[in-house]
# Entry
Amino acid sequence: MRKIKKPSIVCLLFLGCVFTAHAQKDSAKSNFSISGTMGISYEYYGLSRKPTGWTGFTPRKPWNQLRFVFSPNMQFGKNFSLPFNFNFAMKPTNYAGPYAGINKQSFGQFITNPMNSFGLNPKYKWAELQLGTQYLNYSNLSTGDIGVFGAGVDLRPGTYVLKFFTGLSQQGINYFNGPPTVNGAYKRKNWMMSIGKVKEGKYEAAVNFVKAKDDSNSVTTPPVSVKPQEGFTMSFAGKAFFNKGWYVNAEVAQSLYTKNLQNPEDSSKPSFKPFIEGHTSTVKDYAAEGAVGKKGQNFDIGAKLKYIGAGFQTPGYPFMLPDRVDYMLNTRFNAVKDKNGGYKMNVVASVGQRINNVSNTTLKAKQFIGTLNWFTQFNEHWNLNVSFNNFGFETPSGINPYGIKNVSNDFGLNPSVTWGNDKVIHLMSLNYNYSKYTERDVITAIITSNNTHTAMLTYVPTFLMKSISPDFSLLYFYNSVPGFKLTLITFSAGVSMQAAKKKMNLRAQLQYHYSKTGSFKNNNNIIATLSDDWKISDRITWNIYIGTNHFKYGNEIVPNNASYLESNVRTGFLYRFGK
Amino acid sequence: MKKIFLIVTFALVAKTSTAQFNTQLVVIPNPPGALADWDNKTLTYLVSGGIGLTAQVIVKATIKTVDGEVVATKNLAKAPIIIAGSTNLILYVNDVMPLPIMIFNGKYKSSMDKSGKLPAGSYQLCVQLVNPTDYRIMSEEKCRIFNLASYQLPIPVMPASETILDLEKAQSVITFRWTPVTPNTGMMLTYRVTVFEILPGQTAMQALRSNQPLLAKDIVGTTQYIWQPQLGMTQCCTGDPDFDLRMKKDTTRKTINPDLEPDVLVRADTDVDAYAFIWTIQTFDSQRRPFGDGNVNGDGISEPNVFFVDRRPAAMRRSGPPARSTNLTGKKN
# Structure
């Protein structure tokens, strides 16, 4: 009965809003238009390995997969729209998360499997009804990463905003030892709500509430690695925009999270009744983020700060790393005007730090992040791009004689030149990158230096009078650490051309990779691809992709001279609605 | 008869009052930081008595720092009564120190309320049996030292979040780097580098939770992996009429900033102008179990990064980032 009631309440709320909105003066014409796409695609994947029985290379895709897309947007007059988003595949391929390992899905699992979306969002003026699968992003600290199958509304009368959504983010899935192992999951119900006020280009403010609760009785063989959980997060988020491109935004949030609902309730533990009752494993913590800056046509500057408490956990961002502080300063500017009024120089840079394990003074780990990209156009033909990235990570020694210290430095240099005439334009680009990555051993303090040189030369002639466009590139990659050396050389040639009165775009590409590890015999790899986009009519496009990848090892693995051949065929029809 | 009964009763009382059980306490030296994650393998308490000895007992447990400061005590009034006898009795964490009846003191309580963990450091757990009525000692106190460290999962570093790689380089080699689990666990951890393609129409998290990975490579002992993708990635957009027109109009490539030349080099505004990938690290302990101290998902998966491979021809890339790199991260508000 409860299951029937909730969507009914949401529907009534929506219909009420529709009638309210309709009662307002409506001078719209009752035209109908439709846009969007629908399509079907099929993908075949094949893998053969030699010698027979060798399993050193595992399949990377399902053998056969069929995908459907149905996403038209129907517009009835000026005020009513009906967008669909149906996107689903026939074969489950889940690897991470609770659905991993399932071969045969129940209907409920199919509907809520994250690989499928069934969404419908009818909208009348400021009232939107949200049905089916929705990936809703309320804010950075409340919810944004989780798809929920259910029903809700997004109402925006005037400058006010009211959002509410409820549904399931996962079905109950029984644990199965396998093979293949099914990790299993408890059925999780979600509720989310946001109340706020927005004035376009001036300010935004909202209070957000997010709750998720697992159903302990939803499985007969419970998952091994997790217990039924419950989480409740509330946040206040605000943004303000000022003259000359200045802006400021901030959010503060509090979370209560129970890792094990099977533990007894505990009045001494944090709770926020009636939304969440404290259990033995309930924790409460805070998070905050803020940013301030200025955006302009030729100059941007901004500073960001984010703090996530050690026990902060929100159901809407299940992979969020807690117990950290990040801060970052970014800038972008253009300099040195050219004769056309443009700029010859563009610089993008950022510097910042991330501190992990903030709550433990003795275990704080610091990560320095610095990036620079500097582009200069010297004249009509020559330009140069210089980049530098630094990531440094260091921890205190703790129980070891030395702490972890990893430092990554990358320096890149990319000059390009173009020249040509009325018939052909030549582009030649050289890209050199030096990367040094050092790791300190926590016992001996010996520093292992991992050096990489990458050089790539690209040549692209563009024939202005012909419909054929070739391109060539040569890459040399050399990586060395004590006792290990990897050399990689790649030659790639491609050609694109148009056919069938420019309705068909064909592209063929051939790549050869030579790789050699230490003193072992080299490996050889050839990849060939052919693709075609054919515009059969104004509305229908037919895509074909055929690719093959043959890799033959030297003697670096056992059995020697092992090889594999991957083949991949993708084809699909896409229909565009509307004019 | 009455005398004999009194003597027997006296003898029994005397025997019981001095009854001592033999006990053994085993606590692993580096248990999980989240006390709620302690399981039967973390703590074992073995009780055995002499022949014919049977008594009701409760288990007294105290957590202290190595300096002797009391961190938590067990509420003995709520402790369950156990009948111990001559046969060996094995008790586990929920019998010895059930969290609902452990009383934490001062800063340790606030730490437990915030994160479910005690501050990192060395502690000792002291356990003994006592009589349920007057808490008289029934066994020798056994103490074991353990170290709590608040482990943090790796952070994917390179490719950094929302990095855009050139197609020509990415089709040959992509280097992944991440931070190790901190602090050092002292055991050999396995880092599994996983890469998933984000298919058109998918969100990044949808791809992570539903797709088959293009790469799932186990790495031991280092925090870098050089991947040769062999994906047959191809260029796009050469048939884009706007692009061809621009090439004819403009024989020079100018700046990378779209703001500077809005009319000359406009990006191909499609969702196929870049491949999109999400990558993360899944950490396993030395017994191949997902590693995660307090990780609510229980799968050892770190917060992932998204990166893109720009499919547009080299000349076109100067016009700004591919449309997909800006559209994908713009989730519905």
In short: DSSP finds two helices and 27 strands in chain A. Residues 1-29 of chain A have pLDDT under 50 and may be disordered. The longest strand of chain A covers residues 32-50. Chain A touches chain B through 145 residues (CB under 8 Å).
